[in-house]
Each structure stands twice: as C-alpha cells, then as structure tokens.
Design goal:
The complex is a heterodimer of chains A (110) and B (119). Chain A is mainly beta. Chain A is built from no helices and 9 strands. The mean pLDDT of chain B is 97. Classes of the chains: A mainly beta (110), B mainly beta (119).
Chain lengths: 110, 119
C-alpha cells in the first residue's frame, strides 16, 4: 500500500481537461519535489513532470504539474487518444528514507 | 544517445538468487543516481533501490537485507544482486537514471527484465 494516494481512474473526451490528484503527507510531498510518470501499455514509464512543475524536453505543454502543501496535481489539457495510459506521481519520503510512487491513475479517453 | 539495457531476468525458485545488470551508454553511471524500480504483473510501480553518485545506497524495506545494488564504473553498469527471493519479488525490473538536477527524477529507463519466482 503506497503512501501516495491517487484516484484509480480518470476519463475525458478528446479536447477536454483532466486533472489527477496525488495526496501525501508532510514527510513526502510536504518536504520534497514531486515527479510524474506516464506509462503507456506494455512500455517502460517515462518522465512527464519533474520538480513539481518542470516539463522535460519533448513533453508537450498540454501537461502541467502543481503542488500545494501535501498534495500535488497533474493536469492534461486538450486530451488526446494517445494520452490513454497509467500515470504515477512519485517523491522521496524522509520518514521512510525511500522513494515512493503513487497508486497510479488509469486515464481513459472516451 | 542515452541507453539502458537490463539483463539477467528469468525463472528462479523461491529462496534462490539472481543478479540483474543494467548496461548504460551515452553517459557515465557514476555521475548520476541509478535506481531499480519494479512492477509486478498488473500492479503499480515500486521503488527498489538507489545508488547515488556519492556511492551511498538506499533500499526499500521489502528488499533490505536481501538485495544489494552495486556499480561498476569501468564497465559503466549497475547491478542488483537479489538473494532469498520470494514469490512476491516476481516483477519486471527496470533500471532508471536520475537527472543531475533531481536524482530521483528518472529521465531514462531501460526496457525492463522479467523476474519470475516460482517452484
């Protein structure tokens, strides 16, 4: 059981905006930067957002991240069929002295 | 071009040992955090272990005392020695590189190697 909680699923129609939440605590999100990963079916994960809100080179600006206190969010605007994937938040946890991933959210494009 | 290639997975009996290797190219492993992440079939991602650029190592509670992460600077590889394997260790194991800005932001991943622990 992960210390970072995400909704199990989210969905939207093409062009819509979808937001995924990631809830943690003071020892993880409250103290460290949050990263977001996308995992397409059958593929390795890929870094989508680093340091709460930074997009690595090549990641479209449709993806944005934010953090407030002990929660973080990933927003996908202009939803596209290729965005169907699993999304995971992650951060370091000072109490566990370990890295923790969120429970994961499956995004479906209707 | 940065590339990570994992090898060493396979079918192993409970209580057995296996050594995974991650061959890196396009960068030098000693300059980055290098991490192993696993994913059981149909499940989410689980952090396993990290070796930082300063040589320090960190392990998940679920593997501490059984797994050992190491780095071979000459061969530019990172390895994961897995002992006393259990059924719950069955997963695809990914090797990942941390960025130089945030060692725990994994910007490159290998394709993964499957470990199945079963009698």
């Amino acid at each position: 059981q992960s210390v970072l909680t995400q909704p199990s699923s989210a969905s939207g129609t093409p062009g819509q905006r979808v937001t995924i939440s990631c809830s943690g605590s003071r020892s993880n999100i409250g103290s460290n930067a949050v990263n977001w990963y996308r995992q397409l079916p059958g593929r390795a994960p890929e870094l989508l957002i680093s340091s709460n809100n930074q997009r690595p080179s090549g990641v479209p600006d449709r993806f944005s991240g934010s953090k407030s206190d002990t929660s973080a969010s990933l927003a996908i605007s202009g939803l596209q069929s290729e965005d169907e994937a699993d999304y995971f938040c992650a951060t370091w946890d000072d109490s566990l002295s370990g890295y923790v991933f969120g429970t994961g959210t499956k995004v479906t494009v209707l | 071009e940065v590339l990570l290639v994992e090898t060493g997975g396979g079918l192993i009996q409970p209580r057995g040992s296996l050594r995974l290797s991650c061959a890196a190219s396009g960068f030098t492993v000693r300059n980055n955090y290098m991490t192993w992440v696993r994913q059981a079939p149909g499940k989410g991602l689980e952090w396993v272990s990290t070796k930082r650029d300063d040589g320090s190592t960190y392990y998940a509670d679920t593997v501490r005392g059984r797994f050992t992460i190491s780095r071979d600077n000459a061969r530019n590889t990172v390895s994961l020695q897995m002992n006393s394997l259990r059924a719950e260790d069955s997963a695809v194991y990914y090797c990942a590189r941390g960025t130089t800005v945030d060692g725990h932001a994994f910007d490159f991943w290998g394709q993964g190697t499957l470990v199945t622990v079963s009698s």
